[in-house]
Amino acid sequence: MQVNPRSWICLAFNLSLVVAIAFHGRLFAAEINWGDPSTARPPAVLQNMGDPTIIKEGNWFYLYASGPGIPGARSTNLVDWEALPRVFPTDDRPAWSPITDGVAANEFWAPQITKYGSQYRMYYSHSTLGSQRSVIGFATATTLDPNSVFYGWRDQGLVLESVVNDPGGYNAIDPKMHVEVAGENGVGVNNVNKNWLMWGSYWSGIFVTALNRTTGKNPSDSRYQIASRGQTDGPGPGIEGPTVVWRNGYYYLFVSYDGDVNYNVRVGRSLNLNGPFLDRLGRSMTSGYATPLLAPYGKYRATGHNDVLIGQSSGYDLFVHHIWIKNSIRALQVRPMFWDADGWPLVGEPITQYPSAASTALPGAWVHQTEWRNTTTITYATNGTFSASSGESGTWQINSGRLTLTWLNGLVQQLALHPDGNSYVGRATDDSDIRGWRVPATPPGTNGSYNLASRWQGGLIPGLGDVAIVEDDGTVSVSASEPEWRLTDIRVGSSMGSLGAMYQTGGKVTQDGWMRIGISGTGSLDHSGGVDQIAGFLTVGENQGSSGFVNLRGTGTLNCTDLAVGWTHFSSRGEVSIQQGTFNVSGASFIGLEGTGTLSVAGGTMNATGNGWGAFRIGNWPNINSMGTGTVNLRGGVVNANNTTWVGGFGKGIMNLTGGTWNQIAGNLVVGEKADSTYLGRGDLNQSGGTLNSSYVFLQQGTYNLSGGTLSVAGVGDYASNATGIFNFNGGVLRATVPNANFLVVDTASVQAGGAIVDTQSNDTTIAQPLAGPGGFTKRGTGRLKLSGSLAYLGSTKVEAGVLEISNANFTASIGASTMMVDFLAPPPDGEYTVLPGSLNGNPTSSFTGLGNFQMASFSPLTGKVTVATVSGFNYWAGVGVTMTPELLLAYGVGGATAPGQSGEQSTLSIDSGVLRMTAIVRINDPAVIVLAQTNTDLSSPSSWVDLAANRFGTPSANTSGVPAGCQRRVFEAPIQGEAMMFMKLKVIRQ
């Protein structure tokens, strides 16, 4: 389609009065609406401005957005906007476009405007939702001023298209044209003014190609994929809306992730326009990595699809994007964009005044937020110190617009301070967001309604029987100076797409009914002091498309009967964050009932009493679209559960423990409640720190990853035969609280690289579970731990205390920190016997029982094996390789010495009733050695020694006391028949 500039000129001339009213009297086009004019605060958003693009001409900032005909608006102060004529007439579409389906035929998506020379080029896309059949076109104009006689847009036709199952893998929407200028160091550095087109949405991700600079189209056949989230054959996971700028040697690629209320912006950078683009940690955007830049927080939802304007504003660059407001309308936000010391962008708070007001001194009360949800109140003092409501403190310093916070724990945060001194933004070392804003002075009961009939006016407090509703971008505050609130319900963010916020810094609020945060809209509760008593449910994110956020911090107490976070629809989303204070739930806590729910505990105490549903059901219920998904993040503080905790009730549950303490005081913790083929509950418990105390953990359908911290239990079991439970040891400690003959019973137990650590304390414990994997095994505690299952882990074994018993059909090995005993159940055949699957960390003194005659055994800590070998009797006694001497042979044969150098029993010689009698311990278990007695009456004649005439080998003595194995005490006797002298000796002969 071509738009005749002359037609626009005539229109402007003939209707000049109307135009003057439209642009100077603020008569807005139908699709651009302000919020409810009766609200107490002035309008802060421009509605129906999704997927915005921005450019500056003269003193005017021009915006264009998705919608019929491509709507637009302009402003000189970025706050007050006037409507522009659509780029294309309302009921017209490009004749060349194949998109003819219904409403989509006149819906233009994600326009992007760039100036090339003296010409403005507007690239746009034409498609239908979820389809790969898409086209990109562009239109041109010589001026953006609708009052100019030269104003008018001319469509230039097709630039790029994609078809269903396109061989290129991409979807031809969300265009961005970049014009290279002198000094850029990417591809085409020698081709100043070279045009590049970026595009892409879902499917295979984001692409770039060169355009003909004269025509603005004719894309090159060389097309580079520069960002992806791993999907190649369908519409997900979400990545779209590319835009790129060049600054100080780098190209910065901005993209939007996910969708709906979770829409968020991420960024990467590259030395070249065709990549590779990397995130702050050096990871490639084609591998699904990108640095988070702006995500939903507070009352802002769907913070995505941005454009950037560099060097055209005072004090900062500009970042424009849309959010969702009431009735899911997309509204404009304009934010300042700063740059950190490493050259990465930071996006500040929405602009409410431009140019900025004079800077306000920092001291005062501020909200300090990390990771988009964790907030604390910081009070900055004039002496350069600060204190936080979390109890932490430190010092602050401002230098050249940079605010440096140095916490007493050593943490240093570098932040960009807004020129007006009322907000700041920064980034932590782990890429998480840091932002802060001055605590506003909000009078009680400001801007809301109750009983649906009247507006809240300043100071008016709802009473008994009232239902208080906070929406229409309303905010209500409760402080310690107010009388007690007593009403039926509080509903924050009630209507679809509405916004509402409640702050409680003190006082008491009693609700005889429910508190509902985000019913069909977006609601938030920030509770930093006082008491909130709720007789019924506290719901956080309730219906379709809703979002609810509760932040408990400070010294406050929040009490309710039941808690439902992410409740009745798969698209509902709720988050509860506990940083300080006390949260008491007397009934059940549903985290992800049918929607998506998150409970994050970084401090304070949560007490969950529970009921027939248990204390916690994390990921509770399946629905026709997806399972309810619940996540619990425990980073600090204490959670006390007085009834069963289900991680994956009938839905999908995740528990992440990195710190703090979870006390399962009553009931057990169950991972994955797979009741039958309908309720396919699955859970994953990831513990890298902190302590979890429970009677039992039952792994039914899911995985327990123990990579740090301590799991202290009576046992880990599995009573669901139709499900699969996996326990992964990876560095954390599994501690036994009582003796247990079946301490670990799961479908699979894997010993990962971090190893298995089992602390028996003083308990005797048995693990019959097979153990396999690349890691090792460490035994702690003074009790005895018996491993009776097959062992196939590859790492080393270490016994720090107590006894580790290894049992199998051949032997029982008892391994201590310094000693080791291997007891063979029967004399074994010679050979190697595996005690441990790998090496033993240590070199204990080893002993062996149950060996056969002349069998010797040795243990190798390096291999974890015992070697058994049969040796000659003497070598068994003296040691392999020892040379026999007459002295050693005598000690071996007579006396019962257990080894060379050891003392044996002395032989005795006596005369009794005419008999010369010798008693001695002699060896009898070596057929190669003979011990016999001889007598002599003349010592001067060595040849006169003769064997005893009778019983020269002696007769066994009845006294067996002190006789070692393999030996016998014998009596040798010779009658005296008138000899004057008689001598007797024992002779040891080796055959």
Mean pLDDT: 85
Distance between the termini: 117 Å
Using only CA atoms, what is the Rg? 42 Å
Largest sheet: 34 strands, mixed
Q: Helices and strands: which structural class?
A: mainly beta
Q: What sort of overall outline do the alpha carbons produce when their principal axes are compared?
A: elongated
> What multimeric state do the chains show?
single chain
Low-confidence parts: 1-44, 186-190, 442-458
Annotation, overall tally of beta strands: 82
The number of helical runs is 4
The percentage of residues in β strands lies in over 45%
As a percent range, the share of helical residues equals under 10%
Structure description:
With 991 residues, the chain is mostly beta strands. 3% of the residues lie in helices and 45% in strands. It has four helices and 82 strands. The strands form twelve sheets. The protein has a 34-stranded mixed sheet that branches. The chain has an eight-stranded antiparallel beta barrel with strand order 23-24-25-26-27-28-29-30. Mean pLDDT is 85; it is low at 1-44, 186-190 and 442-458.
Write the layout of secondary structure elements.
Elements: H1 5-14, H2 16-24, E1 46-47, E2 53-57, E3 60-64, E4 67-68, E5 72-75, E6 82-84, E7 107-116, E8 119-126, E9 134-141, E10 154-162, E11 176-179, E12 195-199, E13 206-211, E14 223-227, E15 239-247, E16 250-257, E17 264-270, E18 291-294, E19 301-309, E20 317-324, E21 330-339, E22 345-347, E23 364-370, E24 374-380, E25 385-388, E26 393-399, E27 402-407, E28 412-417, E29 423-427, E30 433-438, E31 449-450, E32 454-455, E33 467-470, E34 474-478, E35 485-487, E36 489-492, E37 499-504, E38 508-511, E39 515-517, E40 522-527, E41 531-534, E42 537-540, E43 547-552, E44 557-560, E45 562-565, E46 573-578, E47 582-585, E48 589-591, E49 596-601, E50 605-608, E51 616-618, E52 629-634, E53 638-641, E54 645-647, E55 652-664, E56 669-671, E57 682-699, E58 702-717, E59 725-729, E60 733-736, E61 748-751, E62 756-759, E63 765-767, E64 771-773, E65 777-780, E66 784-787, E67 791-793, E68 797-799, E69 803-807, E70 811-815, E71 819-824, E72 831-834, E73 845-849, E74 855-860, E75 865-870, H3 873-878, H4 886-893, E76 908-912, ...
Parallel strand pairs: 33-36, 34-37, 35-38, 36-39, 37-40, 38-41, 39-42, 40-43, 41-44, 42-45, 43-46, 44-47, 45-48, 46-49, 47-50, 48-51, 49-52, 50-53, 51-54, 52-55, 53-55, 54-56, 55-57, 56-57, 57-58, 58-59, 58-60, 59-61, 60-62, 62-65, 63-66, 64-67, 65-68, 66-69, 71-73
Antiparallel strand pairs: 1-21, 2-3, 3-5, 4-7, 5-6, 7-8, 8-9, 9-10, 11-12, 12-13, 13-14, 15-16, 16-17, 17-18, 19-20, 20-21, 21-22, 23-24, 23-30, 24-25, 25-26, 26-27, 27-28, 28-29, 29-30, 31-32, 31-33, 69-70, 70-71, 72-75, 74-75, 76-77, 77-81, 78-79, 78-82, 80-81
